[in-house]
Amino acid sequence: MPLRADDGSVNVSKVIDRIQRVTATSDLEQRIQAFPRQRTYLLPALHEVHEAYGWLPPEALETVGLHLRVPKSEVFGIASSFPDFLLEAPAHTERVCTGASCRALGGPDHADSSADCLFICGVGPAAEVDGHLVGRGGLRGAVPPVESSTLVQDGSCSRAVADTAHAGGIHVGCAGNCWQAPAVSHDGGRTWTSATTTWSRPEDQRLLRDVGHVDPFAVKPYTALEKAFSFGTDAVWQMVRDSGLRGRGGAYFPVGAKWQTARDTAADRKFLLVNAEEGEPGIYKDRHLLEGDPQRVVEGILIAAFGIGATNVVIFVNGEARLSHERLLAAIEVARRAGNVYLPLEVRQGAGGYVLGEETALINAIHGLRAEPLARPPFPAVSGLQSSPTVINNVESLTNLPDIILNGADWFRSIGTESTPGTKLVSLAGAVRHPGLYEVPLGTPLGSIVDDYGGGTTGDLGALLVGGPSGSILPATLLDTPLDVQPLQAVGGILGAGGIVALTREQCPVAAVRELVAYNSRESCGKCTPCREGTVRMLNLFDDIRHARANDATFSTLEDLNDILAFGSLCGLGQMAPNPVRALMRHFGPDVEAHRSGRCPAGVCA
Amino acid sequence: MAVITETELLSVSIDAQSISVPIGFSALDAINASGVYIPQLCKDPDQKARGACRTCLVQVEGMRGFPASCTTPCVDGMKITVNGPEVNRIRRGVIELTMGMHPDACQTNRPNTHNDVVDAARAHGIETPRFAPLPDPSVDTSNPFFTIDMQQCILCARCVTACDEVQHIGAISLLGRGSQMKVGAFEDQPLRESICTSCGSCFAACPTGAIFPKKVRPEPVKRIDTTCPYCGVGCGINLDVAANNQIVRSDDSPPNESSQGMLCVKGRFGFEFVNHRDRLKTPLIRRNGVLEEASWDEALNLVAEKFVQYRGSFGALASAKGTNEDAYVMQKFARSVMDTNNIDHCTRLCHSPSVHAMLQSLGSGATSNSYVDYENAGCLMVVGSDSSSNHPVITVRFRRAVKRGAVLIVVNPKWTELNYYADIWLRQKPGTDVALFNGLAYVLLDENLADMDFIRAHTEGFDDWAAAVREYPPALVSEITGVAEEDIVSAARAFAKPPFSGSCMIWGMGVSQHSNGTANAHGVINLALAAGMAGKPGNGISPLRGQNNVQGCGDAGCIPDNLPGYQALSGENRQRFADAWGHMTDEPAGLTVTAMVEAAGRGELKAMYIVGENPFLDEANLAHAQHAMRNLEFIVVQDIFLQETAQAAHVVLPASSFAEKDGTFTNSERRIQRVRRALEPVGNSRPDWDITSEIARRVCQRLGMDPSQFAYEAPADIFNEMARLTPIISGVSHERLDREGGIQWPCPTPDHPGTPNLYTENFPRPSGLARLTPVRQGPAAMELPDDEYPIVLNTGRVLYHWHGGTITSRVDGLVDLVPAVEATINPDDADTYGIRHGQPVRVTSRRGSILCKARVKSEVARGELFMPFVSLQGAAANFLTNNVYDPNGMPEYKVCAVRIAPA
Predict the structure, then answer these.
(1) Number of other CB atoms surrounding residue B6 within 10 Å
(2) Partner A contacted by B822 (CB < 8 A)
(3) What was the ipTM of the complex prediction?
(4) Distance CA B575, CA B583 (A)
(5) Contacting residues for B29 by C-beta, under 8 A, at least 6 apart
(6) Regions of chain B short of the pLDDT cut 70
(7) Taking the model in full, what pTM does it have?
(8) Residue A111 in 3-state DSSP?
């Protein structure tokens, strides 16, 4: 069956059928044997097994180890270090999200089998039942009536609350209006309606322009890529440097400078490693781009590879972002057939782990090792994948590139701030009316994001969690803080990947930070002592505070631990683990003091 | 070691003290060099920095925060602060967190271990623990030598690195993550059920005593650098000795070039035998049929008198476990005093066909290359060798090669641990090796893969050889050997054209212990020559030597047909030795071990002097051998234990073990290494060279010969005499070995560096060329299965026992791991004969019958049975084996016909 019909349109379901894994176990052994006998195929091979069985049986681990020549103890050890892999046969799996946003939406604090985030925050409270996402606590809705020209919102969020996968109309990604799901648009994506609501998408979108607007699989010309080729690699690099684009994964390192290091390092092979791991709770921006406009992502990747002078591309996708993975593969296939994929490009899947946000841990995972960070130098841009220069860029960063090439650096700088130009995708969740994904100019005040984009809060705003588990908790008094690197740092926060969770006064800030500490402790890879041991001790101290067992020593030890983690840890995960704790002490002193005397102002803590 | 010039040094300051360090030093290296103390819990001196424990944090001027010094490279002018108030506060906090991992907060050292956390805490003035311990109840006591106690573990991962990156075993790994992380085996099962080989590298690497020895011994007072007495790999060991003359432990020796800090279970834990209560402590003389204690004088006089009496019908067996010096004195005594070439040793029973074939074809009977070549090769062909059990540390080199991308071809009828790593397994039917190797050579010729330049320049006999090879097309070979044609072809291609570097041909007893042994060896050597795989780094020809000094014992002349250094028994040499020794026998070549046994049976040989050998256990068809030897009128056994042969002896002389004497061993890569005295001789035992010299002097006196020929004061004198008479080692002396470490022969002059690779220019044959020797497949074996005895018995060894087991059965932990002789049988055959795993079975051949334990595994093919030849609980496979011989006297240990039944 041809993938492309006579009229040039691509038969998407065929593409996906072709790509989707055969889940039968019958030829599993042959599929494992098909991998080259190199350790770097460990994660892909484990995924084959996990897909086939739904867990990792010991015999299959032995087969994998034998073939890839990795000792089976290590295969087991590495598998056991990735939270998404099951090492025992599951009878029935159910994971309930206990992330900050879902809790804010009425989800439980604890569950026998919990998830830190299921990344459908816009339709929380969320759960996963036998591998299928379920939103709104199980409440499912019907897709509004559609005609053949109707756009149907069809992303992870909408599928979790309705059968959008099998609706008629034209399927597009979610335009960021997750809260509306399932929604449809009769005007080409400008306004969206659900059974009870109507929403108009904001003007002047850049990254999200085609998301929820254009069929992600319609063949589109890669004009930016063609233009980049005509400029030449040096000019592309210069444009990116001049644009002032900074890495959107959370560190905001200038993209052009990172490229330069790799460009200046002589090597036969150079890698572009695309970080689509996106494992931070409450962040679903890369998922939106991959689900809604994967072709722009692929075009950005191809432009970057050209600007870097890369010889190989590896795209590392979060293992639970199945729809992203599926649509990315389809988009690559489309691009390949159009002759746009000019260099080897490989897609790998993760298996969980916040630490994968750390570049060296990500590289280790691809090498088939434990996802543990390494000391620098060497920096990955000098020696990364296969000991070759490796530029690691986030999906959102790369998705900016086509527009920069088409419109120029000045155009890019026309929005945002002087030090951080452009827009930022903000994953807005928690107690807001319209939780979803919004593209906002950098420098926009936090309050404007909550009110103008999020439609205001559902109760009295108590606090904002900004920047995820390595971020901060900020009081309502700081709503005029601009969304930018420097101003957030000034109030003890970080911009991070752009996650904002709103909490009402009904929610206790101490308890909220306690959950972030617990998350950091769970997600510690365990390699370095300060992070592995220190986060456990921190958590114990928080429980003392919450349960009125704290004394002076509790707080002085907590202070010490903040320093030991910040200065003693090997990687950013441990170094930044004290951030929310420090922000809590700084901005919520009275709440903390009240707990010390046995009183929780929100009435949450015992 | 490279000379470091002024310009290659960096100047750094440590707490205001300035020092110069070489480029490449980490800040931690510099701090250690300066003498300033800093904790370094996860940094093993022999492993690369992991940067995990965060206790070596420092402050570096111009750098943000407190970097770990282990992962911070030195740069010129770097200013490092180890002891500053801020950095000490953070480091102290990290140490406190580490202490919280232990139930006793690291307040004490476990016996025989050291806890680095205790030192770190003391140095930082931490007395009371700040954090209550977090209990982790996981304790693994399944290994007989050591316990892994996770309560004492600080997750530094040194043990995992030692297992994975030093020994390349990969039995243990870090499991889970975060605070749930632990050290454990596959599926978190007990260590004993894992692939752990008990090598103890984890134990040696542990900085806290979380992995601690099960047997507590007195604390050591000294450490002696010596050489392991087990297999032919020749690993360096450091013996720690207590004040009471007991070995406390054996530690690895990273500077040793042969072992590079690796050890196996026997080298690390196999030393209880030295201080075992069964050690012979006094001479014994048989009186009225009973061995009774006697004085040295009595015993030596009796031996001297009898040897004088039996001069002319005397044979001697030297020991491949003794030193070169022991061996040299032994053969000198036989040849110059006893006037006979009837001197041999256990090489006869392991590699005599290989040595013979190599001498004929290559001109030297030794391994042509070095262990490092295995690592650098692009292809390894390992034939008839369970090297993982028998040469564990060499096998690490194989695994390193595989990790680098080398192709591993295993040729063996039986599955061995090496098969885990193999790309191609040629599972030939037992005894069909000649056909197989001719078939491989056929592919070389057929596909123009042979190295014709090498063949033309360096070999002779091509046409005759090629004619023989042409008789073995792969289709026919496949029929004879049972190996698939495509496997033959792909193995030949990989060996002839490895992906990089060269190919190494490596083999063990599976080639030699056949009635076709010599032909097999020729087949193997021919293939290596045809592919041009000799004389260059990364290629070579290597029979793996079994005993610690089987190479040296032959080098020293304990073989019936050569003088020391493989010098022919020609007129000229004979005269040279006669001049040096005062007398040298005119006899032609003497009897081999196996011929001596047969001659004893016929009454032609009447007296034997047996040193460190146990023919009552080692010979094929033991009942026959024992019967023949009981015919001897006088047997002297010199040993450390009263083993089976000693029990039948007329005089038993107590020898000192390797740990109680000085000398040298020569390993499988021709490296001569020092053996150093660590203990006082146990009881009244004496070193072998001393006893033999004493006997020789007493015999000389009785015969009117010059006893001063045996007036050695120390082993160094013996070595010097041997070096003078033996060109291949003329440049070596104890003094030089002490100064430089081991040296590989040939080493003709004191300024010669030794020879890692033989045949780099030519072959030491008269023509300077190697010879391609045509061989053709004969009957697979002398005894093949039939209706009455339907199964082929193959014998070999196991990791946890050493040869006949005289030594290893006196190490508790090893006996614990393998307490009984096990017969491995294929599951299908087990069904056929009604045999269940672990059940007792009776195995019977035409020559004997033994009771042992069944081990049902598909490691062996249908119709085949495998047994190690170790003697445990009275069972020994050699009661079953067949005393038929290869032309070089090698018994057919590898094939005989048996039947099996539940017992």
Answers:
(1) 6
(2) no
(3) 0.89
(4) 9
(5) B21, B74
(6) 1-7, 105-107
(7) 0.89
(8) coil
